[in-house]
Amino acid sequence: MTALVFTPEQAAASTDSKAWPFEEARRLIKRLERLPDGATKTVLFETGYGPSGLPHIGTFGEVARTTMVRHAFEVLTEGKRKTRLLCFSDDMDGMRKIPENVPDRKALEPYLQMPLTSVPNPFGGNYASFGDHNNAMLRRFLDTFGFEYEFASATEYYKAGRFDEVLLRAVERYDDIMKVMLPTLGAERQATYSPFLPISPKSGRVLYVPMKKVDPKSGTITFADEDGEDITLPVTGGGVKLQWKPDFGMRWVALGVDFEMFGKDHQTNAPIYDKICEILGGVAPEHYVYELFLDDKGEKISKSRGNGLTIDEWLTYASPESLSLFMYQKPRSAKRLYFDVIPRAVDEYLQFLSGYPKQEAKQQLDNPVWHIHAGAPPKPQIPVTFGLLLNLVSVSHAHTKDVLWGFLNRYTHGATPEDNPIIDQLAGYAIRYYEDFVKPSKKFRTPDEVEIAALESLDKALAALPPESDGDTIQNAVLDVGRAIPRYQDPTKVSPTGGPGVKLDWFQAIYEILLGQERGPRLGTFIALYGIPETRALIAKALTGALANA
Questions:
Q1: Which of 189, 204, 213, 514 is most buried (most C-beta within 10 Å)?
Q2: How many CA atoms, within 13 angstroms, populate the side-chain half-sphere of residue 343?
Q3: Mind listing the pLDDT tens digit for each residue in 54-89?
Q4: What are the strands, taking DSSP E only, across 446-533?
C-alpha cells in the first residue's frame, strides 16, 4: 500500500465529500460492517479484463477509477486497513470470433473456441499465446501509469486449483444455479444450457454443451464431446470453467472480492452475479456501474473492432493525467472517446491543477487532481493552455520544443523546461497533435473590406501598446477595436464605458483569417505569448493574401 497523503483538514472533510470515489468508499465501509470478518479482512478491489483483443482505454478507465475509490477508502479509514487491487484477466474464455485488428486473421481460424491462452500469438514476439500477449500489453500500460496492482490469469487460477473449492460447491448446488440461470434464457438456449464449460480433451476447444450428469459426490460432470463420445471430467484442475455469468459470482466468493465496477452492459446481469455469489456461500461485493465509451460515430468502442482510441494513441498526443481526468469526470454519463476530446481534457486538467492550491480542504477533495494524484498533485506551472500551445505551433511553424520555449521564456521571464516539466511535456504533445489533426484541416480565408479595415485598426492598436503588455491589456485593445466597428457591435451587451459590447463574430473573423480555424484561444493571452511584433507581422501577411494563398 502506498503512503497516504492528506491533511487533517482533508481527513475531516472526507466524511462529507460528494466526490463519487468517496461516496463509493463510504458504501464499501458499510458493507464491511455487515460481514463477520469485515473489520479485519484485507479489502479486495477487483477489475476484469477480457483479452479477446488488445486493451483499450475503457480497460484502463476501470483500473484508474477503482484506484480512486481504493484511495478514498484508505483516507476514510486513515490507512488502517490493508487493501489489494486485483486485475483479473478472463483469458481462459474461448475465442468466439477473430478480432478485426490482428494480422493474418485466416491463420487463427483453426483456433476458434479455444481458450485465449491456447491461441497462437499473431503479433510475434516471445509471448506464448494470444491471451499472454494481450495480458502483457495490459500490464505494460498499467505499469507505465504506476498503478499498484496484482495481475491474475484465469487460466493460471483454474489450473492451480485456486477455484477448486468453490467449483465443487457449484457442482453440489447445480440445481440452484440452474434455477437462477434458466429463466434468463430463451427456450432454445434453456435446452442446452449448462453453467459448466468443459474443455474438450480431444480438440482443446471450450464446449457449450448440455450436461448428461453432474455428480456432487465425485465432483465431476459428464457430457458428449464433439465426436459424440461421452466424457467425464472433474470440475477441478482447469479442465472445466464456468460460463461468464456464474463465473462472476464464483470468483467473488473464491477470492473474497469487496468492490468491483463494470460497464453498463453488465447492469442487467448484476443481480444474477449477486445470486450466484450467494448460492455459492458468499456476500456480493459493492458494485459501481459506469457508462460505456463511444467512438466518433456514437458506437460502443470494442476491443475486437479496434474502434475508438487506443491507450497508446491518447498518450501520443496528451499526458496520462489528462486521460485520468477524462475517466474521473461523470463516469455514469456516456462519452465520446475520440481524438477531438483530447485538447479539452488537457486544458481542463491544467485548470483544475491551477485552482487546487487556492481551495479549502473540502473543495480540494472535490477537485479531480486530488484523486488523479492520490492526494499529492504537483504545483501549477506556466499559465498557458494546450489550445494556446497548438496555436503557437501553428503560427510559429515550430517543429521542436525549443522553438516554443523561446516564446514561453519571453512570456514568463526565466521559465525553463526543467522548472516546468508539465508544460515541456505538453509542448511536445502539441507539436504532434497539430501536425496530425489541426494542420490538415486548417483553411485560411481572405478578409472582406470591413475585415481589412478592422485588421488595420487592430494593427494600429497593437503598435500603440508597449511590447511587453500583458494579456489583459492586449485583450482590452482587441475589444476596443471591435466595439468601434458597427458589424461587431452587440447592443445586447454593455461595455465598461457604457457603449455596446462586442459580438463573438469579431473574434471568429480573427481566428479564420489569422489562424485558419473557426475557434481559437483568448486573443490577449495568445498575442502576449506569441508577441506583439510577431502578431503584427501575421496581420500584414493576411492583408496581402499571403496566408490564404499559401
A1: 514
A2: 20
A3: 777 778 889 999 999 999 999 999 999 999 999 999
A4: 489-494, 500-502
DSSP 300: B
Indicate the SS3 state at residue 220.
strand
Is 169:235 a contact under the CB 8 Å cutoff?
A: no
**pLDDT, tens digit, for every residue of 106-153?**
999 999 999 999 999 998 888 999 999 999 988 988 898 889 999 999
Are 410 and 453 in the same domain? no
Cα–Cα distance for residue pair 95/296, rounded to 1 Å: 27
Owning domain of residue 505 = 449-544
In a domain, 236, yes or no: yes
pTM of the model: 0.90
Whose grid coordinates read 458493507? 31
**Which amino acid does the sequence have at 298?**
G
CB 201 within 8 A of CB 221: no
**What's 525's domain CATH number?**
1.10.10
Give the residue from 92, 17, 38 showing the smallest Cα distance to 286: 38
Helices 449-463 + 471-483 axis angle, to 10? 140
In whole angstroms, give the CA distance from residue 159 to residue 117.
12
